[in-house]
Every structure is written in structure tokens, then in C-alpha cells.
Amino acid sequence: MIILRQLILMGPSRMSDHSSSTLNLGVCDYPEHVSANDWRMHAKKQKSIGLSFVRLAEFSWAKIEPIEGTYQWQWLDEAIEIYQQEGLNVVLGTPTATPPAWLIQKYPEILPVDENNQVKKFGSRRHYDHASELYRDECARIVTLMAKRYASHSAVIGWQTDNELGHEGTGMSFGGASAERFPSWLKEKYKSLQALNQAWGCEFWSQTYTDWTQITPPNLTAVRQANPSQVLDYKRFCSAMIEEFQQRQIDILRTYSPAEFITHNFVIFSAESDLYRLAENLDFVAWDSYPIGMLEFFATWESEQTKTDFARTGHPDLVSFNHDLYRGLKNGRDFWVMEQQCGHANWAQYNPLPAKGAVQLWTAQAWAHGASAVVYFRWRACHMAQEIMHSGLLRQDGTEDRGFKEAADFCSEEFKLATINNKIAVLHDYESLWIYDQQAHNQDLSYWHQFMLFYSVLRECGVDVDVIHPRQLKDKQYDLVVAPALTLMSEEIADQLLALPSETELVLGPRTAFRNESGLVAQTGQFEKIEALVGAKMLNFDSLRPTISQLIEGQGERQHEARLWCESYQVDTAKSVLRYKEGPLDQQSAVISKGNTTTIGALSKSLIKAVINEKLSRKNIEYFDDLPTGVRISRRGEQTLLTNFSSHPIEWRGHLLPAVSYKHF
Q1: Three-state SS across 335-357?
Q2: CA distances from 125 to 110, 129, 201, 209 (A)
Q3: Which of 58, 86, 243, 339 is catalytic?
Q4: How many angstroms separate the CA atoms of 341 and 242, rounded?
Q5: Mean pLDDT, all residues of the chain
Q6: Catalytic entry in 58, 86, 164, 406
Q7: Active site residue 651
Q8: What is the pTM of this model?
């Protein structure tokens, strides 16, 4: 266990430098939920199936401090000692996601306020306002005590801050400390009300402010939606509050526990905060993977048949995107899956049992996309409260559930850690996400919809990609850069795109550069900051009802069919590649090109695939045009993983893949 501890302390990026390092497995355990008589038996069993560590205590504040100033550490001391004696290491979570009842009773002003100005009550989790200095002080107190107590414990290898920050609509509070601090945050940002009024376009509908105290959070606005620029800044503000909230904990842990790593467990398709900034001072990133529940993130853009086809495995691209995103937050550093679904979940609209083999498939897929550890959630199914319906490796009665055998039979030593070095970047930006979804202009359209359309095309071609922020382009040169939805074009992003090497191929998606930093549209047109790159201006955009499609001429007699969104361009220094056919955009440019930059104006999967394939061919990047539905290929170092998420066996290019399986070679 000393060797394992040293490898984990090196952090995922350095673990990748050692060819002998392999994927580590762990489990989330809650000894406080069961009799202490079961602890040693559980630890022995965990060790016997190849687990290396457990995550503990992230929801245990009331157990540790049941009454203000009265502490009960003994149970946690004993649990950690038992795990260590059985050869397991420990990752401790700071318990700040669940302030206890006595603390809320004493300081009710800690509670957050929802969009309807209703104070959220005690009785669940993350019931706090991130901007509250009072709550930050209380968190600092309990985290300091915890860090001092366990910093020198040889079993404790690392820390997780809080739990799923901002998740489930808890990233924004519209009253209390947030409402009080928002005007001062704006004053620091804009310096003058004149600058703020201009940035928000406040001349519209007489929204002009004459005093900072007139500004409130953007909820309960009359008649229609709030000013989108105000909403954008409020999201930035709330993201900054989460960042400050976490940073105070990081500073404490660095002071008292400098040798151990610090991470945080982010969530599926997180959109509550700018995770690139939230991850900056973490040693590496972790996230919680629930592939079956993730299917509902398809929303309206995939058919119910697709959801049915992948009901027991999740869709491979939804899962792999999140892996790629969280690897990208730290410039390609290995990440952890801190919670890996190992049976049915409890929180999605539908929660079917995973298919046989799914747990092993998900574990292998995580490794292929850069995970250095996979932690199963949870050890023993809970017999109480909100997560009664959630499974674990053990059932509520302690017997082995379906996922237990798959975890026990998974040979993690076969999966060696290696550096991932991809030639393709897909650009992602949270501010573009926020402003896009503020005015989607089509109820069936969203940032994620558009982004995943491009991402899935790349994965269906069998190519591996890095998902990164545009500012990270300066750190590595790529052969192909794809920007599906960079709606908000800041000076920083524009500079990175304009500085791309001349040999780099670039693909831009619809709505690119439609907004500036404030969320306004430039009076000179859509591509103001990158017009030299694009060589055109936008003419029209067309938001299509789900029953309407738009034809686009293709190569030869082939045509493409676009749905939901089309925009057309007036070329200047660019050339028109493809045009719309019939309809109000007839003969206007749908795809334009200037040098190595191609701009796609329509949401058509076949059109996007045709453009991407041409770019891949031009850069001599190997791709496949015959990957069967549900089959994906990933590469890590010299190793390759073929996965089959389908419910039936598939033969492809000499490889026979049973249903719900992987082939590692």
C-alpha cells in the first residue's frame, strides 16, 4: 500500500509517466449508515475484490459535530483505522455540502433563495448561499479541525472539497448574501454605471440604472425574460462565488495537509459555473458518472428509440464527452471518476437496471479517456432517506448485488496509464453556453444539443479528441480544431483563433461570434472580431419548427437536410461551398470557406460529417466511416479499446464484440 500511496500522491499527470502504473479502483463508503460491527467485514471484502481506497465523510457534519462545539471524531477515527489495517487508503470529503440543523437554526440567513424569492428550507443538501461569509466562516472552522486531525494520518491520501458544487440548481441564490453582494461585484467589474448600462444595453425598455442599489438579481422580472446581459453577469457572479467558496477550503487544506491531493467531484453536463476556473487550483479533477440517467440529457434532440436502445448502458458519446471534458479542464491531466454507477440510480426520470457487463464497460471506457481511478458508488445500498432507491455493490441487507461481481472480476492491472496525445481539439466555453441558452430562439435547441452534434460526428468517425477552452490552444498545436458553438466571442478567444498556425484546419459551427463579452451583438455584424478569419457576414437565421426541414445542396446529387437552425452568409473574402435549396434561404450560402477555416451554418448531421471527413482526409488523420451504431474506438498510449454499447453482438473489421462488452488490446 505504500507504493500505491506514492503513486496517488504524485497526481494523475505524474502517474501517467510510469508505465507500471495501472488503473486504481475504489468505492464510496458510508460507515456511519451501518453498524460498526460491519466495518471490518466490509473493509476485508473491499480489499478482496481489488479495491485500493474508500471515499468517506463528505456528508457527515452532523455526525462529527452533533451540537455546536461538541465533536464526535471517534467513529471516523475507528473507521479510518480499520480501513488502513485492511490495506485500504482513504479520501476524505469536507462535509460542507450538508450544514447541520443546529447551524441553520442559529443562522437561517445562510439558506439560499430560489427564483420565486422563496427561502429554501433545511432537509436535503447544499442548502446554503455560496456568497455567505457567515457560512464560509463556519465551513472554514470545520474544515480546519478536520484537516488538523487527519493531515498526518498515513491512510489519508487526499481530499475532496464539498460535494457536486452548484448541482441540482444550487449554484444560484437570488436573495440574502448573493443579492447583497451582486451590486458591489458589478461596481468592481464596470467601475461606472455608464459602463454597465452600455454593456447591458439598458436603453432598451428604459432599463437604465442611476444608482448601484437599484440593481437586483435577475429573477421575477415582469412580463418577459430578464435582460440576457444581466443574466450572463449574474451567472458569472454566482460562478465567482462558488470559486471563492471552494478556494477558502483549498487554502486551509494546503496549509495543514500539503502532501495530499485536493480534488472535487463535478457532475454530468455541469453548467452552473465556469469549471475551467473552478478547477484551476485543484490537483486534478474528478466527476460523477451515471450513464443511464445521463440519457435524459439528450432532451428532445434524440428519438425515444435511441434512448430505448441504450436504456441499459447509456449512450457512449454522452459518457465519453464528460470524460473528455474533465480531462480537458486540467490540460489533459488524468482525472478520477469519483462516483461510478454500479447498479440502478435513484434520481433520473427512469432508472432501469444496467445490462450485464455495463459496469465493466463503463470502467474500461473511463480509463480509455484518461481516468487513473474509478470509484464505485456506493458500497452498500442505503436503507434510509432520499437514496433508498439507489443501488450499491451490496444490497441493503449486505448481500452482493449485480455490480459486485463485475467489480470483483475487473482486472484493473491490465489497464496501464499512459499519456493521451490527440490531434483534434473541440472548443468549449461556459459563457457561450450561458448566453446561447438564454435566447435559444427554438425551444428544442440548446448549447449542448449543438455541441454534441459535432462531438458525436467525431466519435462516430472513430477519432479521439480533446475538449478544451479556446485559451488552452496556446498550450498545444492541433491538426484540426472544431468549435461547435462559440457564441460569445471575447477578445481572448478571438486572439486564440486568429493565432492558430496556418496549417491547422478550423471548423466553426452556427452562431459563432454572434455575441460579444456583454452578450450584445456587434453593430458591424456577427463575425466582428474574427472577420479576417471567416471572410463573410451573416445574412439571415431561420429557427425551424420540428416539422420543417431545410435542404442543402451536396456533392453531386446528394443533399443534406437541416433541422431546427439554419443561418446564411454573404461572402466577402470567403467562398461559398454549399448553398441552401428552396425555402426562404434559397441559393444563400450554408457553408463557407476561407483558407483552412470552414463555417457551417446549419444543423445537419450529414452535412457536419461531410465537412469533418474532408478535414480529416486533408490532415491524413485516420478515421472510419463504417463504425456500427453503439461501437466506439479509443486509444490511450499504445493501447486501444473497442467498446460495444449495443444490446446485441457486433462484428466489425475482424473484431467480434459481444453485446455490452469491450475489447482491450
Answers
A1: EEEEEEECCCCCCCCCCCCCCCC
A2: 13, 12, 38, 36
A3: 339
A4: 26
A5: 94
A6: 164
A7: no
A8: 0.95
